[in-house]
Amino acid sequence: MTKPVLFVTRRLPASIEALAARDFDARLTPSDVAIPDLLARAAGADAILCCPGDVLDDEVIAALPETVKVIGTFSVGYDHINMDAARARGIKVCNTPDVLSVATAECAMLLILAAARRAGEGERLLRSGGWQGWAPTQLLGTQVSGRRLGIFGMGRIGREIARMARGFGMEVHYRDQARLPRDLEQGAFYHDNDDSFLPVCEVLSLNAPGGEATRHWLNIDRIARLPQGAIVVNAARGSLIDDTALIAALRIGHVAAAGLDVYNGEPSVDPGYLSLENVFLLPHLGSATIETREAMGRVVLSGMAAILAGQAPANSVG
Ligand code: DGY
């Protein structure tokens, strides 16, 4: 039987490329960076496996070959895909939910701890050769235990962060469109408005999806309502933050520290962050563990195969 043609836009873990080659007529790409000729390479494909950073906006989707029936994204976030345009073309989309929640939550905890304990500054000091030994006043940070953590977006990843943060003795608050059932809430305090939520966020973790609805949610006005000396972390999407506003707040210390894994316009990073000592920066590593990336590959490939077989898998998003 002829296998469906799958165009893969980036290099994948070896086991996942093998799986793709087993189940599809796979056109693999030996590159870790976005390729310029996505449209040309998609010619004749039934399915496209893309990544965050591959921009599938309305123009690209409109220009995709007629043969394309499904787009799978190697991510849970799908804000890089114009869903209206995909729907208009009758192209189904699937993603990689659940399997990356723990890894991404671990990354958010890393950002929280690194920002609170000035890990970036400490590492830079050591590597520069400037460390002169232990000192009672050196690089004093903030203990997270006993602090209030505010989670903006209490989906699967937000709930994992809440679980982990409880282990660190943090009091968990969250803001979302609706309150969770008690068993998922696990004692976290729900806020249905910014006025009650923002002032309790000694540590604010952004975990909502990207896209127009949340663009620059953390703006100058909301930052002003955070407690003096708050810590801000973002392992969700760069678009949630107005960088100019956050950089200004970090400069004056209203926000004491930030931990960022994601950026507006990746892979560019606002240069304002690069000169600030009180920012800990990672290059979008949220789901970057071997076991997670392999699980993501299995989930997205099986979703695409199911859609091509006329089924509606659980990871179909439109
Ligand atoms: C996702 O899945 O959306 C992540 O950001 C990729 O690591």
Task: Put the structure in a nutshell.
The chain is of the alpha/beta class and 318 residues long.
Keywords for this entry:
13 helices, 318 residues, binds (2R)-2,3-dihydroxypropanoic acid, globular, alpha/beta, 5-stranded parallel β-sheet, single chain, 7-stranded parallel β-sheet, 35% helix
Protein model, in words:
With 318 residues, the protein is of the alpha/beta class. 35% of the residues lie in helices and 15% in strands. It contains 13 helices and twelve strands. The protein has helices at residues 14-23, 38-41, 58-63, 83-89, 101-116, 119-128, 156-167, 182-185, 194-197, 220-224, 243-252, 271-274, 290-308, and strands spanning 5-8, 25-27, 47-50, 70-73, 92-94, 148-152, 171-175, 189-191, 203-206, 230-234, 255-260, 279-281. Strands 8-7-6-9-10-11-12 form a seven-stranded parallel beta sheet. Strands 2-1-3-4-5 form a five-stranded parallel beta sheet, with helices on both faces. The radius of gyration is 21 Å and the shape is globular. The two termini are 28 Å apart. The protein binds (2R)-2,3-dihydroxypropanoic acid. (2R)-2,3-dihydroxypropanoic acid binds at residues 52, 75-77, 100, 286-287. (2R)-2,3-dihydroxypropanoic acid is lined by residues 52, 75-77, 100, 286-287.
